[in-house]
Amino acid sequence: MARADVNETGSDYYPPRARWYSRLFSFGSAIRRRLALDRIHLPQEMALIGLVAGFLVPGLAVYIRGPRLWGKAVLASCGLLFLSFIMWFGHPAGNFALGLLLSIHISGFVYYCRPLLLEASFRSRLLFTLLTMMALGLLIYLPIRNVILQRWLVPLRVRGNVVIVQRLGAPHDIKRGDWVMYSQNDGETGDAHRGGAVWVRAGFGCGPVLAVAGDRVEFSANAFRVNGEARPLLPHMPNSGTLTVPEKHWFIWPDFDIYEHGNIGEANISATMLQMATVSQTQFIGKPFKRWLWRRQISS
Prior knowledge:
By secondary structure, this protein is α+β, with helices and mostly antiparallel strands. 37% of the residues lie in helices and 21% in strands.
C-alpha cells in the first residue's frame, strides 16, 4: 500500500542518518588525535586554512594577515618575480628572481605567524625562520625544481648561449628535420680521437636530424645525399664515402668551435666529426624550442 500520508522530514527523536563522507571525517579525526594535533591551539588571529594557504602560495600570507593593500602589492610582486624567472630561465637574472621570490615567501609566512611568536625569544624566532626556510625549500621549491628539470624543461649552455629544451618528447618520435639536443662524450673533459691528434671536449650538441635509422648517406665533392636527395655540404664534411644510419641512431652533423694547434689535417677533422655524427638515442636530452618568448634559439 502506498505511504502518501507518511511525513519524511527529520525527527527530533531519531538522529539523522550518517552521510557517505562521515567516515572520511572520522578517519581524519583519528589521525589528528594520533599525531597529537588536537592539542595544538592556534591564536585567535590565526586560522589553519590561512596557515596552510600562506605556506603554499608566495605572498598570500601577507594578504591574509593584512593590511590588504600591502598584501596585494606583495602578491603582484610575487607574480612579477615568477614571470621574470620564466623569462630568464637558466640565466643569472632568473635565479635571482627565484631567490627573491623564496625570500618574500619566507618573510610573508613568518609575518602571518607573528601572533604565535609574540612571546617567543629572539633565538626562537630565528630558529622558526630557519625551519620555515628549510621546510619551504625541501617541501615545495626543491621538488618543483626537480620535476621541471627532469620531466619538462631544462636550460643548457651551448656555445655560450642558454637554450631551453623541452623534455616531453620521446626519441622514437624524432623524424628528419627535427632539432635535437644531445650529450657529447661521457668524460668530464672530453675524449681523444685519431690517435690523440684531435681532442673533443665533453658537452652538449644541438642540430637538425639529417637522417634516421636505415637511411643511406653518401658524400661527394659538391654535396651529400640522404636516400638519393642531394643537399649542400656542411663544414668539414668528407668528400667521399657512404654510411647507413644504424638502428636507434640519428645522423646529426656536429657544429663545433675548432681550435687548431699544429698540422692536424682536414682529413683527421672530417673523420672525427663523421664518427660523432652518428648519435645514439641514449644521448637524447630533448627538443629545443625554436623560440623562448621573444628570444630565437635555433636558426631554422
